[in-house]
Amino acid sequence: xxxxxxxxxxxxxxxxxxxxxxxxxxxxxxxxxxxxxxxxxxxxxxxxxxxxxxxxxxxxxxxxxxxxxxxxxxxxxxxxxxxxxxxxxxxxxxxxxxxxxxxxxxxxxxxxxxxxxxxxxxxxxxxxxxxxxxxxxxxxxxxxxxxxxxxxxxxxxxxxxxxxxxx
Length: 167
Ligand code: GNR
Ligand code: NI
What we know:
binds ligand GNR, alpha+beta
């Protein structure tokens, strides 16, 4: 296992669209296990492959309080969405920034697991928000892009300044 580097907004690589995985093999399972180690080390509830600069449709989520319920989604598709909610979100690629994002209240997702078996999940609450947040990443979209241009400009400036200081 390995901890991978998480791309930081506004890195342009966060905007690359992920391609479908056509064969789930050992390399895919290694990616999933490295992503899990990376997500747990960073104390996130989800991670998309895009964030670790792998532009394939792979995402993981664990919203359990004791970090014992890892869910793996390969080539995920939302097949139902219902309702609207406003929830505060954060992102490991946009550290220290939290804001409200409107999402579907509940979604049904179909995807492949790490063994290539298809499953369908009905999600609501944090799990539903997280699925939508991670699927946005796979399309090259970061949650701040749901906010106003003014907020996006402020966030970009703040993170660039912070990255300059850290360098
Ligand atoms: O850790 C995370 N918390 C979170 C909170 C509300 C909605 C979505 C998320 S996902 C985020 C981890 C992350 O950046 N995943 O891409
Ligand atoms: Ni994120």
